[in-house]
Amino acid sequence: MIYFIQGKRALEEEIKAIQSLGDSLRKELETVQIEAYQLEENHKEKEELCRKLQFQCDESERDSARQIEQNKKRDELLEQYRCEIQEIELKQRKQRMKFENQLLQLIEQHKNLFSVFGPQRLPDEIRSAENTKLQLLGTVQAKLAQLHILDEKLEEVKKQTQQATTPAET
Questions:
Q1: Reduced to 3 states, what is the DSSP secondary structure of residue 170?
Q2: Alpha-carbon gap, residue 41 to 39, rounded angstroms
Q3: Which of 93, 109, 110, 113 yields a CA-CA distance of 20 to 30 A from 75?
């Protein structure tokens, strides 16, 4: 019986130890389950965060591609505007050169006209014009005198022809 009591006590102690072990294992299981639940929640949050970040990344890539395309179009427009500006500048340069050439021609014409009709030459030109006028007057007077002489000779010839025809009739 002693063995029986001792066996019973040993079994009761073993049962208490097993129960104590079971309680501690239950507590540990609960702790592990809580931890697993927290880890699952944490995992879900991180997956959601990852999806959000992936979406933001995709959106950023689309924005970046859009901006690159816009920059490319702007660069093309900028190059087109540069070409147009260069064309306009070239046209203006040509117009300026044409204007400068015309201006130089006008200056040269002005110099020539000034040398011909300048105030210094005016007295010489007036004298030259007066001399030409006097020469022309002299020439006109000489021609008038020659005409007068020819007219007188013509009258004389008419008279002679009339006199020659009148005695023959008589």
A1: coil
A2: 5
A3: 93
pLDDT in tens, 113-162: 877 777 777 788 788 889 999 999 999 999 999 999 999 999 999 988 88
pLDDT, residue 36, reads: 95
Instruction: Give Cα 143 distance to the centre of its chain.
Output: 75
Residue 168 burial (CB count, 10 A):
7
Residues 150 and 129: their CA atoms lie apart, in Å, by: 31
Is residue 117 a contact partner of residue 125, using CB atoms and an 8 Å limit? yes
Taking the C-alpha atoms of residue 110 and residue 117, their distance in angstroms, rounded to an integer, is: 10
- Within the chain, how many helices (H) and strands (E) appear? 2, 0
Residues 6+ apart with CB under 8 A from 154: none
Distant-in-sequence, close-in-space partners of 115: CB < 8 Å, separation ≥ 6 = 121
Alpha helices, DSSP H, located in the chain: 2-117, 122-169
Q: Rg of the chain over CA atoms, in angstroms?
A: 67
